[in-house]
Amino acid sequence: MLTGCAVLPEQSADAVRRDPAPRTADTPKGGLTPGTRKAYHRAAKAAAAAGHTLHITSGYRTAEQQRSEFRQAVRKYGSAAKAREYVLPPEKSAHVKGLAIDVGPEPAARWLESTNGRYGLCRIYANEWWHFEFSYRYARERRCPDLKPDATAAG
To answer: Where are the annotated segments for Disordered (predicted)?
Structure first.
């Protein structure tokens, strides 16, 4: 079981990038939902076949980790309103629900976006090329929703 990193088991050790939110899909008390985890594995395998290496750079976050990220964003951007464009409070975050992954590098993220929901993962925000959220509906319909300008549109 991986602990303290965001890379899933079939990726090589040299690909591990430390995650400020260290819970992974393999933790017993939380993590990515089974659907999100399976979607990522399927997408990563297809990405590799297409010549890309797709990594999770951030995944599941506890509510406290998300609160900490939000507080840091408020300090960085100067206001809660501006911070919400990039980081949501825990009660609004798909990361806390295990439904969101941040991925990289950018060419692999662009490849994932080009699959238009085929694996159930869709880019959600125009200002975050790295942020994808899982939904069975995306995979079923093979269609992603229109991009929201930023996370403030999350509701």
So the answer is: 1-35
Within the chain, what is the greatest distance between any pair of CA atoms?
43
Q: Write the DSSP symbol of residue 7.
A: -
Residues with Cβ within 8 Å of residue 79, at least 6 apart in sequence? none
- In single-letter form, the type of residue at position 53 comes to T
pTM of the model: 0.81
Phi/psi for 113 (5° steps) reads: -60, -35
pLDDT, one tens digit per residue, over 113-153 is 999 999 999 999 999 999 999 999 999 999 999 999 999 99
Residue-wise pLDDT tens digits, 10-20:
333 233 333 33
The structural domains of the chain, ordered by start, are 15-154 (3.30.1380.10)
Round to whole Å and give the CA distance between 148 and 153. Answer: 6
Distance CA 12, CA 15 (A): 5
Length of the chain: 155
